[in-house]
Each structure stands twice: as C-alpha cells, then as structure tokens.
Amino acid sequence: MEIKRKELSSSDMEVYQTTQEWIKKRGVSLEEIADLTYYLQKDFYTDLTIEECLEHVKQVLKKREVQNAVLTGIQLDILAEKKILSEPLQDMIFRDESLYGIDEVLSVAILNVYGSIGLTNYGYIDRIKPGVLGRLNDQSSGEVHTFLDDIAGAIAAAAASRLAHNRQGED
User: Fold this and answer.
1) DSSP readout, 39-95?
2) Nearest to 159 by CA among 16, 18, 60
3) Distance (Å, whole) CA 121 – CA 154
4) 61, 105, 111, 125: which has the fewest Cβ within 10 Å?
5) In the chain, count of helices (H) and strands (E)?
6) How far apart are CA 113 and CA 66, in angstroms?
7) Burial classification of residue 112, based on how many CB atoms lie within 10 Å of its CB (0-12 exposed, 13-18 middle, 19 or more buried)
8) How far out from the chain centre does Cα 49 lie?
9) If you ran DSSP here, which 8-state letter would residue 116 be given?
C-alpha cells in the first residue's frame, strides 16, 4: 500500500517534530493513536496494518492546522495542571467539565482537514473511549488531559478518514 507523502520545509519539520515530542511527553505514543485508527477501520479493510495506520497518523500530524490544535490544547492542559489559569477557566479545564466543549471544538479543526467522515469517526470513539482514550480520561493520576484526549481521538479519526479516502482512490 503506497501512501502519499508531503515533504516539509526545515521550519515546518521543526514544528512537526515538536508536535510529536509534546504528544509523547504527555504520555501518548503515536502507536496508540494508530491503534485507534486501526480500531476505526479494521472492519472495512481486512488487509489493514498498524504500520499503515501509523503512517496516516504521521501524515495528519504534518498539517499545520493539526499542529496548531495539538500545541494549543496541550499547552492549556499543562497550564491547568499547574493551576495557573484564571478562574473560572482553571476549574472547568482541570475538572474536564462536561459542559465545557472547547476541547471538542478545537478537535473539530483537526477533523475538518479530511472531511465529514472524520466527524462520525470521532464521535464514535469519543463516546466509547477505546485504548488510550480511556486512560487519558481517568483523572485519578492528577494529570490534566481535557484537551489531549479529544486531540488524540481527532488525530485518529482524521487518519482513519485519510486512509479511507486514499483506499477509495485506489478502487
């Protein structure tokens, strides 16, 4: 399976690498996101591999809109974890208040990159929270992942959409 690749300039490569590093520093591997992508697409493509899913995740992360959403969301999680945001925002993000939907809104920026299928994929995994999403939603560690759980789900959903679009193009 050949996957279309986009080459990055050196400054774009730096932001791409920083985005990956921040995700990793917050305890999420790209392989875990690829597992979510696999989960979303395995029933449609019997020859699908985790490696192919991982490549699509990496390609999604090369999009500037995605990088911007990831870096912004992770920074807000970190600030809330350090308890340095102003109230009432501090409490809403720290508790991952159910009516605070800006974390999902930020994720929609990622989903829009690959069309409406991303939204349905995201809605599905956001509701059932498989794999890493379940771990990120467990607040017992004291870490704040209000944005990161939605971002990881959105990256996986966008990668699943990208994969489906690429596979459809092969038919």
Assistant:
1) HHHTTT-TT--HHHHHHHHHHHHTSHHHHHHHHHHHHHHHHHHTT-SPTTHHHHHHH
2) 60
3) 8
4) 105
5) 9, 0
6) 8
7) middle
8) 19
9) T
pLDDT at 15 over 70: yes
Distance, CA of 76 to CA of 81 (rounded, Å): 8
Cis peptide leading into residue 130 (ω within 30°): no
Contact 65, 77 (CB under 8 A): no
CA dist 61 and 42 (Å) reads 21
Euclidean distance between CA atoms 165 and 113, whole angstroms: 12
Q: What is the pTM of this model?
A: 0.92
CATH of the domain at 162: 1.10.3760.10
Number of residues in the chain: 171
Residue 16 in any domain: the answer is no
Cβ 133 vs Cβ 33: under 8 Å: no
CA-based nearest residue to 96, from 37, 159, 149, 158: 149
* Total number of domains in the chain: 1
The pLDDT value given to residue 96: 95
What's the CA gap between 126 and 21, in Å, rounded? 23
Q: What is the pLDDT of residue 12?
A: 86
Question: Tell me, what's the pLDDT at 154?
Answer: 98
Using only C-alpha atoms, the chain has a radius of gyration, in whole angstroms, of 16
- Is 7 within a domain? no
Q: Which domain range does residue 65 map to?
A: 27-166
